[in-house]
Amino acid sequence: MEMEIEAEEEQVQMEPPKIHRLDDSVVNRIAAGEVIQRPVSAVKELVENSLDACSSSINVVVKDGGLKLIQVSDDGHGIRYEDLPILCERHTTSKLSTFEDLQSIKSMGFRGEALASMTYVAHVTVTTITKGQLHGYRVSYKDGVMEHEPKACAAVKGTQIMVENLFYNMTARRKTLQNSADDYSKIVDVLSRFAIHHMNVSFSCRKHGAARADVNSVATISRIDAIRSVYGVSVARCLMKVEALDKDPSSSVFQMEGFISNSNYVAKKITMVLFINDRLVDCTALKRALEIVYAATLPKASKPFIYMAIILPPEHVDVNVHPTKREVSLLNQEIIIEKIQSVVESRLRSSNETQTFQEQAVKPTPSCQMVSSNDSNRNPSPSGSKLQKVPVHKMVRTDSSDPAGRLHVYLQPESCGHLERNTSLTAIRSSVRQRRNPKETADLTSLQELIDEIDRNCHSGLLDIVRHCTYIGMADDVFALLQHDTHLYLANVVNLRGIMVILSRDVGKLKMSSN
Ligand SMILES: Nc1ncnc2c1ncn2[C@@H]1O[C@H](COP(=O)(O)OP(=O)(O)OP(=O)(O)O)[C@@H](O)[C@H]1O
Ligand SMILES: [Mg+2]
To answer: Which of the pair, 203 or 421, is modelled with greater confidence?
Structure first.
């Protein structure tokens, strides 16, 4: 009771806390912590600056996951000597003058905050040279200002920015990041994404001191080549092109182009590389919508690889909605997502329907595999790199117990224009027929009894399928691929073995072998 009275008295006596203005250095550091959330945010900002500077080559070096050093070098237009004193002040930019400019902005930067933010949480050194200069300049920055006059130095075309000791003055942030091992992989991931979209620019990313680069892309004019060089041939060969165009101002105006994975691409998690008006962004709603389509259409390949570039009129995109510019807001977003969703859905359905299986002839011929219709953009790399072919020995089904002989190797989305679905199926059927020898089937009366029992107890539709199916081959250790009419079935042979042995004798159609 006494304590209650004391608390009440305390409340009455407590004065409201005094409001005071925060010191600029505190404000700037707090703001900087929002813009540069982790090393990968600094890399993204620096690379975007290099792209805005019309670079054709961007090289990134990283030490200690970016905490010790991030160095981004480009061959862009450089920074004018006169601009160096204010380069790293907050809200200084060459990309925006009035608020209205935001409506038509094409550059990735516009706030004049990225470099400034870095100087509040790290040591920043800039080396740059502009066209026609005999030498470059180097200058270091701290808390938004130059630490000394720019020093003349030797320089190669463009700009190099070094960010050292990131978060040296933010103990908690540095500690949490030191324990996280995946910052370098996040940097590699972001560089990979830039590399496949900005395919006219060559990118490299390596750990400091490492001889090998973890991203090493060369400029190309083919998107699929760009994807192949960054994500590998195994991803590229599973992709199909998607496109959408809407010009109806009463609903939505946009253009979409991309590559999406087919049923052969199996991964543990979705990879969604999305660019909207050339900005690398996330769009959770679109990602979710596409995941739903994949789960419904290709349940076994429901974690797809998706590269998508969407172009909208600049005035339909609000780029100023996130401190790291990671998200944008679109006019008619729901309609756009719905339309893209339905384009992807019909693309997946049509690719599913037009999958064909082709057995390679005994005589080695140019390799042809499963066809995904309209799988375009298969030009050889302009850099001269050839499409990686599946080795010939892997294309021939020799033994189903041998991984190289399993049907999976036939399921490559490589286009083979001159062979149609029907001819390839006929080839399979005829070669299967050749292998069969109905005379070899046993003639035991006990089997007849079992057949009668199966006839009595089994579902008639299933029996009809098994009776009249064509055995194509083993898809893996457990599942056989069977064809009935125009349908393909994956049959669990462990469950079906008894029935199949019996029916093979009955109708002389199937012959089980030790393979
Ligand atoms: N690599 C570079 N090459 C040429 N100029 C550069 C480079 N990096 C930065 N700049 C210049 O420095 C300015 C400030 O860069 P900063 O990244 O801080 O701001 P921004 O790109 O204009 O906007 P945002 O904060 O949205 O990125 C840019 O406007 C640009 O003029
Ligand atoms: Mg910028």
So the answer is: 203
